[in-house]
Amino acid sequence: MKKVILGLLLLCTLSNAKITYGDRIHVDFGRGNGFDGIVQDIRGNMLRVKVIDVQLKGFFVLYLNPSTCTGNEILNKGDRKLIWIRKTCVE
Question: What is the pLDDT of residue 63?
Answer without folding.
Answer: 92
